[in-house]
Specification:
Length: about 450
Amino acid sequence: MDDMKEPGRHRRGPLLITAAILLVAAVSTVGALGLGGDGSDEAKAPGRSGRLVEVSRETLTDRTEIDGQLGHGPEVPFPVKAQGTITWLPASGTTARRGEQVLRIDDRPVVLLYGSLPMYRDLGLRQTTDGAGGGSGAGSEAGSEAGSEAGSEAGSGTEADSGTGTSSGTNSGSAAKGGGSSSGSPDSGQPASDARQRTVPLHGMDVKQFESNLSALGYSGFTVDDSYTELTAAAVERWQKDLGLPRTGTVDAGSVVYAPGAVRIAGTSARVGAEATGTPVTYTGTSRMVTVNAQATETRWAQRGTTVSVELPGGRAVPGTVASVGEDAAAPESGAGKDGAPAGGGDGGGDPAATVTVVIVFGDHASLGRLQSGPVTVRYAVKQRRNVLAVPVAALVALAEGGYGLEISKEGDSEADGGTGDDASLGFVPVRTGLFADGKVEVSGPRVREGMKVRVPG
């Protein structure tokens, strides 16, 4: 007989569990519906499962986050103009400063200087021809005058035979004129035998930029201005001697490259022994920064000077500041779908949105530790509410008449029933909600106060 009763016991178990679940659901519904109007006569409900939390006063901040990349900024190629064979290249990650070489071509250094103008021409003294018979001007005039005077004097002699005098005058005059014209006439194009070569300064803003660097490297004896003079050339010769270069006093366009300041060698695209063509060396800035591709339609937060929080790969957060925001929106990569949308682009549906580049810098680079690059998360505050009452969002209960309420506990209301201290529910209090942030919500209402215990349904 015992064996025959066993199946019945198994059938009653599920029925009892189902009945208990329905009973709990009914009690919860009655508790929520029992609150009417303004909540002054809250319906008291028996103790329920869950946990109690206090209404706390705090600052709520609504943050938005976007993916970024820690690095040293975009790579820029060095505009190397020198021709020849690469004989030395720097290691990636090294720092190059003013006066240091960024590579060697035909075993001659290509030196880094600071400036914004490119090295577009050789810098040095210019040569010009000065003296009689320069092909025009004073040289031609002197030759012509000498020939005329000689011919007149010879032709006017009275002691000689008239024929001879005429002949002599003509020949002498012709010879004299020929002497002036053979050196300075446009027909010959040759300088006069007594012409002199003299040097003249070279002028330009590129000269001033170079002289500023030369002075910063410790070379003196010239004036930093836009004139390349003999004094500048003398200083250049001393510089060339220190570099192990021939002392010419002229700076070849291929021997110098300019950058805004000290640079970090990003990489090399050639090998030692290859021809120096293209852009064999690229560089970045020396400071670490974060680059973010933000949606072009959602960059109101990205104002220069805005403070953000950058979460590093290890989970540590450091403060950063928006340094620049791109003015041109970049179209998404061709063929990129929802899964291939650029960081910060698109809403998960349709075509990815166009993006702009936002650069974030750090005031304290030591806070980054040894980390040089990697993915990061940038967080910024969209809205903030200070000194407000807040509870976990899960504590909110939807009320039958609309809106939200909190289930208060007798343990948290010392004014109710003498403050017996048990955790029986005193009912539901309607609240107004404000900012939602970090899993909490701002609440307010006539019956809500700091320290009140409310139930989070379990």
